[in-house]
Design goal:
The complex is a heterodimer. By secondary structure, chain A is mainly beta. Chain A has helices spanning 4-19, 59-62, 159-162, and strands at 42-54, 71-84, 88-95, 103-110, 114-126, 132-133, 142-143, 164-165, 169-182, 187-208, 211-233, 237-250, 254-258, 269-273, 278-292, 295-308, 333-349, 352-365, 371-372, 375-376, 380-381, 386-387, 393-405, 412-424, 431-446, 449-462, 487-501, 504-516, 523-539, 544-561, 570-590, 594-612, 623-637, 642-656, 671-672, 680-693. Chain A has a 26-stranded antiparallel β-barrel. In chain A, strands 7-13-14 form a three-stranded mixed β-sheet, with no helix packed on it. Chain A has a two-stranded antiparallel sheet with strand order 6-8. Chain B contains 13 helices and no strands. The chains are: A mainly beta, B mainly alpha. The interface between A and B is large, with 218 and 163 residues.
Amino acid sequence: MKTYSPVFLLAALGVLTGAGTAAASPVDTSAWTCKRCPYPEGTNAVVEAGLGAVSDDSAAFGDFTGLQKKGAYLVLGGSLSHRAPGGLWLDAQARDLGLDVREFGARGGQEGRYVLRLNYAELVRHYGDGARSPFLGSGSSVLTLPAGFPAGTTAAMPLGTTLQAVSPELSVQRFELGGSWIGTDRLSFSVNLRRDVRDGSRPGYVSYFATAAQAALPVDHVTDQVELMARYDGGRWSASVGYQLSQFDNGLDAIVAANPFTPVAGDTRARLSTAPDNQFHQLVASGAFQVSPTIRASADVAAGQMTQDQAYIAATINPTLTVPALPQASLDGRVDTFNGSVRVSATPMAGLRLVASYARDVRENRTRRAAYPNVATDLFLDPVQRTNVAFSHWQDRFKLGADWRGGPLGLRLAGGVEQDNRERSYAEVVETRETSAWARASLQPIDTLSVSLKLSGADRTHSTYGTATWFGAPENPLLRKYNLADRRRQAASLRADFAASDSVSIGLTADVADDDYRRSIVGLRSARTDSIGADLAVTLSERTRLSAFAQAERVRSEQAGSQVVGAPDWTARTRDRFETVGLSLTHAVIPDKLDVGADLSRSRSSSAISVQTGVGEPDFPSATTALDRLKIHASYKLNDRTTLIGSLWVEEADAKDWRLDGVLPATVANLLSFGQQATNYRVGVFSVSVRHRF
Amino acid sequence: MKTLTSLTSALCLWVALAWPALAQTAAPAQPMPSPTQYTANGADTCLECHDDESASYSAQALFKSRHAHRGDKRTPFGAGGLQCEACHGPGALHSRNKRASAIVNFKADSKVSLAQRNQVCLTCHQSGSTAAWHAGAHERGDVACTDCHKVHREHGDPMLAKTSASQACLACHQTQRADFHKASTHPVARGKMGCTDCHTPHGSSAPAMLAKATLNQTCYSCHADKRGPVLWEHAPVTEDCSLCHTPHGSVRPALLTKSAPLLCQQCHSPSGHPSVPRTSRSLPGGPNGGTAMLVGNSCTNCHTQVHGSNHPSGAKLLR
């Protein structure tokens, strides 16, 4: 049988490949009535309902979870499935209905005719605990101050009596509606609509020349997206064309904040602009063609236009300043985009595959340039007018790759070369060119062990490094911006997977990536990432499974700076470390009756910074994070329809961050901050619910 | 010029290797033997035995999926469809000898090659989102369709649900799995985002199989407020969001790759405050006292509009 089976299977595959779609059935199936087929009929519903409890208030824990408040909450969710005669069907799901991260989705239609989709999801962002601010009207577009302001420094401000708790909070709602219509066996059409609504406030800063204040800034965003697509599947070839629109609307034109610091000359208020309304229109097309049984090609092309023409706000809110007229009332900005790619893959002989691709991406900013009067932080009129810069980018990427298998011990070799050419307007360099090559060898010396090693190298060079004078003082001529600089990149990746037995498997990974900005005298000079990881999966018994992972990462970088716009006179080193371990266990205490499981993870990070000026500067205090998470869950099947579910979730976070720790509202003379400290919480969540199938 | 020469050489080599295939337009990579016999009654034959149900295998689960839409003749159970044998191949012999090796099975230990198993799926699923599969990293990385998709699972294909789909991705992408345990991440670990919100695992023209043509366009699909164009653009923002942000996770806030002011000072070193080294002496309590140019959001305490400004006086991204 062993010698017969592969032949048989190849025969079966030959049938499948030759059969193509069901329409080209190689056998008469008219008598295949499928009487045993368990097609679902009627309505089936599952409802889960119960109660949960949160042990403590924590905005940080509530970020994305909706569990920011101590106390009880409703566990509510479920699913519904309906099948009607004539091929009408509906599947719907809902979860977290008792929280402000609720989701609902439904999909239905008529088999072979059309499909309709509807989704709704909420998210909530919470920006940490302990924020305090003297601003009145937090979260609104006009922020005022109580009596006693302004003052020369934060220490002189009447913060003891005016600080009040603020809780920046952003609600995100997404509505999706879509449908597809199956015109014929080969032709289909689809429409997708999406609306994202963001409403609330977020922490932000307002600057007053040499001083700044943190405030809860309002957010009122609506983004609508529309996609219309037509697809044709001709078997050997397929194609699609479509139109996409994304329209962003901001309900706020500007935010005005009173100046808590003593004004210098009429700058009693600051007015910030907000993100302007904008649109993105794009025509897209794609196609794929089976050139021969061994060659396939596909391509995409998209041409788009980003536009923005919102009326400008005035150059300043300072009534004491006389400002020349703006050159135009709005930007009338326009960026043309083009994205095109073509890919070809071939199998010229058994075991050898070749892939080639080319892609071009263009962002061409056609916005008119003009000189604008510039009022610095609503304080004084800059004697020099500023001209806007419309940045454009052109990128071409070529790739060639090959892989071959068939050597002894499961040897597989793969390799490729890539070329990435970029052009930029108004940048220090006109062109960067990066050539890279990679090679990978995989080996399976025994059935239970596979090992692969990948090596890669890349060399980026640039055309003449000049001076880009966007505004302000010119950059240090020795500076090389890291996205433009010459760079030599080397990377290696090793992976081994071992099945120690039928029930134990182990995976090990190690990665190294090293960037050398060899010609950068000022700026980023080197960066290196090392990481190792291990995975373990154990089937302890038919009823018990365990898996575990561990990952460690170290990221190092060095940069140099110069206070004298010349040779470097200071250096900085950043050392980031991150380790995480996880353990997951599932156990069927009573098979098909009582299941329990647990997930545990423990993560630690540290970031050490040293800035040296040659006089023995002390290092920064290490910024650290610790995050421990334990989830325990159990389900007990009361009967065929009803299951009792319980869960316990404990999460603890403890961070130290010199950016925040000890920085209270009055700590820094020229910075009125929220006084928020680094994240620290310990929260437990317990829930019990009943899932019932109707 | 050197690059061009290298590319030309590589292209010539590639064409030379591919020429045998380019020259023949109809010959398959390897001949397929003749078809064998189908069952007499299709799925009814299969279900005589395959009526077992478990968490990892469920015959019933398939019938809840679109693969079993009888009204859609593009599906295996549509009119004229080969039902189970559309994917598993002719099953007459298997129905007689009950041997797993006598049918096309999709398990990891299958005797059928991975490419051939994938080809079964691609027979129907080779257009639309899977059109670029043939040149994608997953295809070249020997990923089987069934490594991720499970059409016989009791609770449905895990790739159709955000949370379980991400778990499938992160089982192989361990570095990204670790990233989502960092202090600053997109909410994938919370189940509020999925890998497929940004990536198309079936292949795309973009780097890292991104869902949109470029990284920035992918980011703009949720962060449209950053898209512009605006009057005063910040060059790296228009070029590549990942010049400052890392998408999967960071040990510092806002997914930043480095803490300010050092992040900013990698590109800004003119005379004046941008080039001044901010040492620990400038922390609150230090000999230099606290400075707004270091703590809080550092540079962006004042340059608040770091993503660009449409304010007429926003040239320095202060308004």
